[in-house]
Amino acid sequence: MGLPILTILIAVPLIAGALCLFVNASSARWIALIATLIDLAIGIYLWTAFDPSGAQWQFTELVKFGAGGITPSWALGIDGIALMLIILSVFLMPICIGASWVAIEKRVPEYMAAFLLMEALMLGVFCAQDLMLFYIFFEGGLIPMFLIIGIWGGAERIKASYKFFLYTFFGSVLMLIAMIYMVSTAGTTSIPKLMAYDFPFDAQKWLWLAFFASFAVKMPMWPVHTWLPDAHVQAPTAGSVILAGVLLKMGGYGFIRFSLPMFPEASEYYIPLVFILSGVAVVYTSLVALAQRDMKKLIAYSSVAHMAFVTFGLFAFNRQGLEGAMMVMLGHGLVSGALFLCVGVIYDRLHTREIARYGGLSDNMPAYALLFMVFTMASVGLPGTSNFVGEFLALVGTYKVSSWAAIVATTGIILGAAYMLYLYWRICYGKLVHADAAAMPDLSAREWWLLGPIAASVFWMGIYPESFLKPMRADIGRLLERVERATPPGDALLTAGKPAAATAHEGAAH
Amino acid sequence: MQLQLQLIVFLPLLAAIIAGLGGRVIGQTASKVVTTGALMIGAVLSWPIFIQFLGAHAQPQVVDVLKFIQSGDLDVNWALRVDALTAVMLVVVTTVSSLVHLYSWGYMSEDPSQPRFFAYLSLFSFAMLMLVTADSLVQMFFGWEGVGLASYLLIGFWYHKPSANAAALKAFVVNRVGDFGFSLGIFGTFLVFGTVSIPAILAAAPGMAGSTIGFAGMRVDTMTLLCLLLFVGACGKSAQLGLHTWLPDAMEGPTPVSALIHAATMVTAGVFMVCRLSPMFETSHTAMTVVTYVGAATCLFAATVGTVQNDIKRVIAYSTCSQLGYMFFAAGVGAYGAAMFHLFTHAFFKALLFLGAGSVIHAMHHEQDMRFYGALRKEIPITFWAMVAGTLAITGVGIFGIGFAGFWSKDAILESSFASGSVHGTVAFYLGAFAALLTSFYSWRLIFLTFFGKPRWAGSEHIQHAVHHVHEEQSEMASDHDSAHDHEVHAKTGTAGYHPHESPWTILVPLVLLSLGAVFAGQIFHEYFVGAEGGEGFWRGSVAFSEHLAHASHEVPFWVTYTPLAVMLIGLAIAYRNYIAKPDAPAAFVAQFPSLHRFLIHKWYFDELYDAIFVRPAMWLGNLLWKKGDEGTIDRFGPHGAAVAVGVGNKLTTRLQSGYVYSYALVMLLGLIGAASWVFWWVR
């Protein structure tokens, strides 16, 4: 075994985070930035070194804790799916540090430490190949998030973190119980082995529900989404970016890593449940977004609607659906992160999230207006931007299984356009009516460095998505093989054509 | 041809990026030169391609550019396809676009954000070219949404105006309703054919005729379903009845935009789509019938509303909507050649009418209400003659094989629909003929109100401002009024001492060139587009051209041939009587039929209806779900309820709210560690 690169990936932010606690504010910022950039470099290396046609699990590491039958172990390894989510995380992290550069003034070293700890844990989630290791990373990641909202958040941060706590805690407990059962039944804590283990159908149903409780909260799916708007509103900008960008993706990752391959029959059994909840989410949260007067809440609700495309795609049980779901996760990670940054840019200047306090910003902030437009259009899924590829594939996949589901889901493109463009209108168009808003300067160089790279990635993913689809292709294929036996038939039931009759008809017409 | 094609499509994109991002650096003039130059190069390169196809010297071909999406069977490339149908669209788009670019040099000369305007125009042209060169439904959708974006940006170009912002939002959202259908159509097509490549779909379509498919719990005819879903998209983009409400409002955009996007090119994308997919539509009789009825109904509806509009741009907007209806019912009866021919000629004469209207508005100091025009014939003669050329074209003046553009294309449509012999074709013929009468009436009404009679300029606030040198707000704010609200206007006659001026050459050159198109386009090209032999040789399978129908349309009865001419003369006569001979007659007519007039002035109450059943309920429901759903139900019984249920409720909440952040973070961490150790212990 060569260099334990995944361990290094996790260790770098962990060590840097510990270091931060012993230095002053300015040094902490630089340490955090450098550490996250090192991780970004490692991520890019992984991307280039990953062999899409090679083994399923690459860069694997294994250190057993003790001997015996069932022993938890430090087992790391990634496939293409995990790889892409790691890239997303390491890409957004330096941007988060940059976004906190001046906005965070109190307890900077602790803040940076919390962020670096979170990065380490998030990466751990995507690298873990041991069930117990996964659980510790998965739940541990909540703690720094929790602190970030609770200490550096807005006026009602306590209430928000309380909600966040209750929801996630509830899901976690159920998942933990399910995991204990699985380990004792299958006799292993290895995720790859569990992915190939066939649980009896009755057990699957219960296990699936237990995992669902946890992942649905993380996603979040309707109706367990109400923690998200509050958490976003109260979190500092960088917290929102990482929450929307990466933490929400853990739910989707959980479904694709656990629910589908480990419980294929149960997943099929619960398709109606998932589709109904997702359908409600699209329509319900889009309408609620339309009525919002707080920028962050609006974008938070839009996240719920977008994540419903992910659940639709995942439970479509076909290639387009699964690849689409992954692309939505990546695209949404970039775009919602960017939108929260856009909110942060003007929040830092005016210290309000109320939409009505802005308006006409195209006049004094043209560069901001341009980038905000790019992300708005990406959010409504305009072709040529990242979100289109994902949404399109996910909906194609959904349609193959259920036309009803696709009809309901596709209404999202109408409502999405309505609430996002209405937001854009109220922020950037119209006249500059408020003197303080009119006095705001355009993007600084630092802000350009935060938003510019995301904009470039949004176009890259929208115009040449092959770079992102290719590493995942083989793994989606393996997953499809695994779930094939449970794949539902779909409601189209297409009959063969009767071209002969048509010709006769045409002949008669002449 | 490969390099040519790439240049035609990608130069405008490059120009848009340069002007849009670098406009501040390179300056206004450079931005205008770059964008206009890109489109002019495009036009110069497009005409030879078109002429090669006319002479049947060119073969259809596809240029692959880049891989796009590959997901299992779904394999899409960025590719540029050119065949006869595309060649027609290439010349239309590049020609009108480059003339509109040139026109904007003059029309927008006082605007402070010209680089942005020109960048948007070029971006639009790029998206439109991607649409017409699409080889797959996905790329067509890319162009489709791209032109929608450009349209949104340009309608809302004067973003200080609330009405412009509202119109832009409305255009985008209503188009999205169409795209909802289009998207489902693409999904369904992929499901049925396993591909989104247009040639592959068209080849396989006849084989699927008569099959059935499950959709939303029903069993329906496969091809009918797919065609109708795609047609919903076409209705949105081409402003057909039901989804037309955005087009008149889109006139909030600068006039060059109206000419390019909302008359000549973008709004015809729906017609283009139906023609491009014509072999698919041919497999479903039901779908064709629906297309015909929707087209004919739109044709009539928009023409009726057009007769009562007072805003010069809105008259032309409704006229556009109506002419698009003609194109659709032509496609619906299977006369794709005629549909495309009308699209082609309409692009020239409608762009001409809009640009002419812009020239009038320019001369009249941003006044758009025709009630304050009159007697402009002598003041702006070149504009006048250009507008007359456009009007002769749209009303279809011509006889015995000599005529203006519309004479050839509109007559071909009416004759084909009659010749099709079907019920829907016959209905469309009568509705279309009646709409032609109305077309003639409102078109001549526009000319008479604007250029003839006595000057009524004194009543206009804009003119008063200009004369009294009252400090104008920005020019963009000037035309902020809504003619739909028929506030009583006490038209004063007189010039108020105002002297309109003819527009600069940058405005007049495009008018003159488009006039040539309006006069000669029909005469020159009719044999290729709609001739029985010529059509077969020109289209060569790029649309489902029916030689049989083309023959039949030349053998319709005598009275059918002369109906368009007759109704044109009747419309002209009514307009002449009401607006020249007896100028008091319209008011008397309104007094006699107030409810009819109210119905028309409110545009058949579509906006009011949609506001009541979609817009308000959506906002109301959003608020309700938020307050009563999320906060009143889910939170109440979810997190808050949970706290109560575990019996620590109030105490815990108060403790937490008093700020012990670390405490529960610690609790959580301890719980986690406890749980983990318990697991390990238990497992062993």
From TrEMBL, chain B:
<feature type="transmembrane region" description="Helical">
    <location>
        <begin position="505"/>
        <end position="525"/>
    </location>
</feature>
<keyword id="KW-1133">Transmembrane helix</keyword>
<feature type="transmembrane region" description="Helical">
    <location>
        <begin position="78"/>
        <end position="105"/>
    </location>
</feature>
<dbReference type="Pfam" id="PF06455">
    <property type="entry name" value="NADH5_C"/>
</dbReference>
<feature type="domain" description="NADH dehydrogenase subunit 5 C-terminal">
    <location>
        <begin position="556"/>
        <end position="673"/>
    </location>
</feature>
<feature type="domain" description="NADH-Ubiquinone oxidoreductase (complex I) chain 5 N-terminal">
    <location>
        <begin position="68"/>
        <end position="118"/>
    </location>
</feature>
<feature type="transmembrane region" description="Helical">
    <location>
        <begin position="315"/>
        <end position="337"/>
    </location>
</feature>
<dbReference type="InterPro" id="IPR001516">
    <property type="entry name" value="Proton_antipo_N"/>
</dbReference>
<feature type="transmembrane region" description="Helical">
    <location>
        <begin position="343"/>
        <end position="363"/>
    </location>
</feature>
<keyword id="KW-0812">Transmembrane</keyword>
<keyword id="KW-0679">Respiratory chain</keyword>
<protein>
    <recommendedName>
        <fullName>NADH-ubiquinone oxidoreductase chain 5</fullName>
        <ecNumber>7.1.1.2</ecNumber>
    </recommendedName>
</protein>
<feature type="transmembrane region" description="Helical">
    <location>
        <begin position="117"/>
        <end position="134"/>
    </location>
</feature>
<dbReference type="InterPro" id="IPR018393">
    <property type="entry name" value="NADHpl_OxRdtase_5_subgr"/>
</dbReference>
<keyword id="KW-0520">NAD</keyword>
<feature type="transmembrane region" description="Helical">
    <location>
        <begin position="180"/>
        <end position="203"/>
    </location>
</feature>
<keyword id="KW-0249">Electron transport</keyword>
<feature type="transmembrane region" description="Helical">
    <location>
        <begin position="140"/>
        <end position="159"/>
    </location>
</feature>
<keyword id="KW-0813">Transport</keyword>
<feature type="transmembrane region" description="Helical">
    <location>
        <begin position="287"/>
        <end position="308"/>
    </location>
</feature>
<dbReference type="InterPro" id="IPR010934">
    <property type="entry name" value="NADH_DH_su5_C"/>
</dbReference>
<dbReference type="Pfam" id="PF00361">
    <property type="entry name" value="Proton_antipo_M"/>
</dbReference>
<dbReference type="Pfam" id="PF00662">
    <property type="entry name" value="Proton_antipo_N"/>
</dbReference>
<feature type="transmembrane region" description="Helical">
    <location>
        <begin position="6"/>
        <end position="26"/>
    </location>
</feature>
<feature type="transmembrane region" description="Helical">
    <location>
        <begin position="661"/>
        <end position="683"/>
    </location>
</feature>
<keyword id="KW-1278">Translocase</keyword>
<feature type="transmembrane region" description="Helical">
    <location>
        <begin position="259"/>
        <end position="281"/>
    </location>
</feature>
<feature type="domain" description="NADH:quinone oxidoreductase/Mrp antiporter transmembrane">
    <location>
        <begin position="134"/>
        <end position="431"/>
    </location>
</feature>
<feature type="transmembrane region" description="Helical">
    <location>
        <begin position="223"/>
        <end position="247"/>
    </location>
</feature>
<feature type="transmembrane region" description="Helical">
    <location>
        <begin position="384"/>
        <end position="408"/>
    </location>
</feature>
<feature type="transmembrane region" description="Helical">
    <location>
        <begin position="38"/>
        <end position="58"/>
    </location>
</feature>
<keyword id="KW-0472">Membrane</keyword>
<dbReference type="InterPro" id="IPR003945">
    <property type="entry name" value="NU5C-like"/>
</dbReference>
<keyword id="KW-0830">Ubiquinone</keyword>
<feature type="transmembrane region" description="Helical">
    <location>
        <begin position="428"/>
        <end position="452"/>
    </location>
</feature>
<dbReference type="InterPro" id="IPR001750">
    <property type="entry name" value="ND/Mrp_TM"/>
</dbReference>
<feature type="transmembrane region" description="Helical">
    <location>
        <begin position="556"/>
        <end position="576"/>
    </location>
</feature>
